[in-house]
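Hi team, as promised in this morning's meeting, here are the two structures we talked about. I've kept the exact order from the run log so nobody has to guess. The first one is mostly here for context; it's the second one we should focus on when we meet again. Sequence first, then the predicted structure tokens.
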Amino acid sequence: MVNKSKILSDISKMAVDAMGTFSGLKKEVETIVSLRVNKIINKMNLVKRDEFEVLKKIVQKLSSENEKLRKKRTSKKKISNVIRKKVKTKKRIKK
């Protein structure tokens, strides 16, 4: 019986040691994979998320300002055309 208990104790100890080894191995594999992924990403020259968000906001702001300026320019052209027409009509009337 004592011999059986010692065998079970040894098996249990080996199982615990194996789990510790596998845990360390898992961490090492994760580290290696992470380093390789980061290396590939750096080679691809990808933009970081925060930089992208900042640029996106800038582009949206500039786009809205551009649209406002277009509307303003269009309204000025309309006013200018109306004034020209009035001036032409007045010239015709004077002749």
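And here is the second protein, the one for discussion:
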Amino acid sequence: MATNHLSAQSFEAMRSQAEAGDAASQCYLGICYQTGNGVQQDYTEAVKWLRRAAEQNDSSAQCYLGVCYQAGLGVPQEMGEGARWFREAAEQGDPAAQFNLGVCYEMGQGVPQDLAEAVKWYHQAAERGEPQAQFNLGVFYETGQAVPQDYFEAARWYKLAAEQEVAPAQCNLGLCYQTGHGVIRSDSEAVKWFCRAAKQGDKTAQHNLGLYYASLENATSESETEAEGEGTETAG
């Protein structure tokens, strides 16, 4: 059931289903209250419905409930409780929850910091197409944290995230092409990915693009200077 542009009739129908115990409707109703879609935003009410769905093992509701606990939306902020709900959803294969749980382990939020465990959850989310997990996994492979350094794997995950318009991944992929790390070196490919990231406002990509064009201008100036000097004679 989509929650975009809900009519009053469809909202009331969803509420009736939620009150009757339908977990999917409870989850969507909770999201509506959390986002203010079709109803006045109310985080406490959002938590009430998300919890009802989460307790019926709805993985989306569990993930959203984890976010509520992490951010303190409608409940006191409790990082450990947030991680607990992320785990419940992650173990059911929810990619957003797997990514969030990976972040918890990487940052030590609500769980002991454990980079190997972070990589494990990023891998699971990345394999299900979660773009931010794909980017984070690329960083781990590029830096060699918790995994053997592998530029090929780094570039592979960056590309998957870049194709889903993750700007930092596009920037990093551009650097891979510029340096030949994990891919065949290609200035044109590097510029292509820098441009895509730069258009999204990525400052590092904008900087890299500026450096690239500056290097071209310098090379052109040097060539012109050399050409002007050819054929000249010095006084004897």
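Starting points for discussion:
The domain at 16-121 is CATH 1.25.40.10 (Serine Threonine Protein Phosphatase 5, Tetratricopeptide repeat).
The radius of gyration is 25 Å.
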